[in-house]
Request: fold
Amino acid sequence: MTALTGAPPSPTPATPPTPAAPGKKPPRARGRLTPYWLLLPGILWLLVFFLMPMVYQASTSVQTGSLEEGYEVTWHFATYWDALSEYWPQFSRSVLYAGSATALCLLLGYPLAYLIAFRAGRWRGLILILVIAPFFTSFLIRTLAWKTILADGGPVVGALNTLHVLDVTSWLGITAGERVLATPLAVVCGLTYNFLPFMILPLYTSLERIDGRLHEAAGDLYASPFTTFRKVTLPLSMPGVVSGTLLTFIPASGDYVNADLLGSTDTRMIGNVIQTQFLRILDYPTAAALSFLLMAAILVMVSLYIRRSGTEDLV
Amino acid sequence: MEQYEPDRLSPAQLAAVRRSLTGGRAALTRRSLLRASAGGALALGGIGALGACGIPPAGRSQGGESAEDHSAKERTVAFSNWTEYMDVDDGGKRHPTLEEFTRRTGIEVEYTEDINDNNEFFGKVKPQLAAGQDTGRDIIVLTDWLAARLIRLGWVQKLDPANLPHAYTNLSAQFRNPDWDPGRAYSYPWTGISTVIAYNKKALDGVEVRTVSDLLDNPKLKGRVGVLSEMRDTVGMVLLDQGKDPERFTDDDYDAAVARLQKAVDRGQIRRFTGNDYTSDLTSGDFAACIAWAGDVVQLKADSPDIDFLIPDSGYITSTDVLLVPSKARHKTNAERLIDYYYEPKPAAELAAYINYVCPVDGVKAELEKIDADAANNPLILPDRDMAAKSHAFRSLSSEEETAYEAKFAKLTGA
Reply:
């Protein structure tokens, strides 16, 4: 159904071809075909820009060869196993970092979305613009800005050192020594910052839809504000939570820019590995196999998550 | 609750859509038929398509394919270069040396700065070059190792010495005979790039750095050392530090150099492997010292008094960015004239004064002194005898070596 709701609500589709059987009445056939015609542009788009590259990548992943000798399909599935056994640390690291960033986004984003939806009043538009404003500049510049913010000699690291926060985080293993940059913490911070709007916007949309009278009704029934939140607001905002976490987790787990600029050698994520394999080592089969493994891993995790959260019909 | 929800269809609409898709026998059968046939087609077609794909071998003929040369009819040449690799006037919009070329020859230059990274650029033009198509570029500037790969693959055109009199005479001896293009049949250097050690005096805080070993070993610099993600530059500097010759080293030498770096990585000595972005780490003081490119350091030094560089006694690596004419380029003769033009002392001096990299052209000193006396006496721009003696090139690698070495180096960087 998602494809249908996403299709543009164009009132009249292109003129259908004349049906092969002349005995049938044209108006009826046309009516039945309408949904398919509406689907056509979307399906064509997916065919050319999703399915074909997928087939091409799938093929690359089972090829062997070299740049000079060319690559041939040899059904060499061992590439998958080799890639997985070689790079599982980067895989699990990606899941860990993306998961942490998603959790942080939810913690930061939910209160803000709640505020915008219920308490912001006339400031609502302005705050929404502020949430989106970072997107007016490039992803790279935004990430590089964090290098200035977290610089070793900068005020943030200075304050954290004075408060001995970095001693704790060092002990936990998420920072190294008296610095934040080039540590896991910096990468997770970068991911959180870069994908936060993807969490806030869906949350805001689903919170904003909640009828304010439901809150009043809950209050009339002697529910405390906390109970109201737990029994009314939170369940009704679950579609936003689910789509927000998906929109954050999926791109974050494939990201490589943050790990590249803010991380070090021990924070490389699977996106970095794919990039290196593809561009530097020119091992296209391994790069393709890693991409498929990443896709499969995300697919499995996401479908489990959606099933567990029981929001199939809400998303 | 009858609120307007813009991204959802009304229940009535939804019901209608559902009815038309599932209701009625015709629709149902069509759907199941579609599903069945689509599934079968996908399974069959999928396997067929997977098998049909494959990447043909790259052309191995020596010498790229020359297309018909349209130079005489079309007075233009398309020049793809890196950013900030060309002189600009005070307004920052125009390129005086290119305009002079056009004035003199009547050949319009379509100048684009669309090369940011050797590996990415290779990924971008590979499909076209592999398929024997014109990339739309007549001149490209690439680092020597990638140029060597393109020559090996037969994706660049052989240059005609008759069109390159100045280039032939004025090319510095240091750059005349690289092992990957002896006698410069396919490529001419645009600039030389020296790899040196750069440091931030304030961040060093009195710690003495003189060699690559100091970078890799001194515990006072732990976590504040950067090395380049360009394999040849970093490993080359380590090889020199270990007393090996980067022009003649063995697999074992390479492994020893990588093991040396690995030890520093494991100890947390090395903070990051960087591309060009090391400049910000160095100026902010996050790097106390790092392996760096001299051209950048000349610029950084001008902006910040804390930044300086040194050349280890063991020597330094010089690579080159070279001009190439890709296969099937339409304006080869025009391209050669442009290459030759930049080997005349005056344009070469103007370029060198602006971009601060090693100038590969002989006889430039007098012209450069007229423009910028400091630059003319800077051994990083016009190397003197001492500098030239310490300069080493990284030997060219075979395809298998390149893959194996890059893979080992990638493991070092964490991916």
